Amino acid sequence: MTHRTEASEPFPPVRPGQLAHMHAAVIGWYRDSARALPWREPEASPWSILVCEVMSQQTPVVRVLPRWREWMGRWPRPSDLAEAPSADVLIAWDTLGYPRRALRLQETARAIAERHGDRVPETEEELRALPGVGDYTAAAVTSFAHRQRTTVLDVNVRRVLGRAVAGLEHRPSSVSKRERAWAETLVPAREHVEWNAGLMELGALVCTARNPSCEECPLAQMCAWRSAGKPAHPTSVKRTQAWAGTDRQLRGAIMRSLREASAASGAVAASAVAAEASSEHAGGSGAAAVPVRLLESPASALSAAEAEFLDALPAPVRAAVLAVRELDAGGERTSRLIADLVADGLAQRTDGALHLPV
Ligand code: SF4
Fold first, then answer.
1. How many domains does the chain have?
2. Which residues of the chain carry a pLDDT beneath 50?
3. Which domain holds residue 324?
4. H, E, C per residue of 315-353
């Protein structure tokens, strides 16, 4: 479907007639096949769309949906989230991963409340000036919340355009100015919201990274990569990092222990040993602390009182602490990652105990 000026041209122009055909195929498919998601409803607020976009980065919709519903119920306006205790925000983020996003989102909410009268800005420039809002999120909010014509380029869109138009299996990891300019030439003058959303949905459901369902794809007859026999990208490198044994896994386990301790703070505070080992470190936040030694010391190094304290913890907290200990019984990695979490503002260390930020 392409008209290349050079055999090696990575961003080939598309003839107007072919482009119109492509628009009709993607937009028609989106109207017929898109998932019914609450942030796509006409009454969805720009704030709810911004929250969804931040949550959806590197996280599948099925995991985002319950968290998003809870967040919008608790914090329907930016000012609501701005005023929430950070510990509550991290608990509500639950297991969405990359919890720094939760704190950045709260910073964004504060900036919107203070600088924009509690209304999500409409221009990409204003959006990019918010903490933690990058090119993709700014474009997505501009398009989906304010229905302005812009170019939304996430990993799914780039994969679909790369395959269907350029005939490449995948793109390099970062978006270049040339790629952005090229993608802009493909955005229709009308129905641009449906085009952007349709490409994203197509990449999420049909033109997936590993097993594209080309027989179900509205672009199948015009797809350059398919017609070329789906050649592997010459620089293709399998860089999938196993989850088990990674620092991310252990960081997630430590954060889970803090969320569970905070959620069970009443029970923890009721423990006699907790009073000795933890409550004085809780910072008065209502978010219970976990003694660092319970997280990072080998079993042989725990005192009898510490072992008893561990046994007396509420079951979800004990299970979370034991999970950390199982992942890193020696404690060297745990110590390092605890320091990282504190440096990132995701946890606070008060004397010998760790807790969610207050
Ligand atoms: S035909 Fe296959 S490879 Fe081409 S865009 Fe559709 S799903 Fe992707």
1. 3
2. 2-8, 267-287
3. 247-355
4. HHHHHHHHHHHHHCCCCHHHHHHHHHHHHCCCCEEECCE
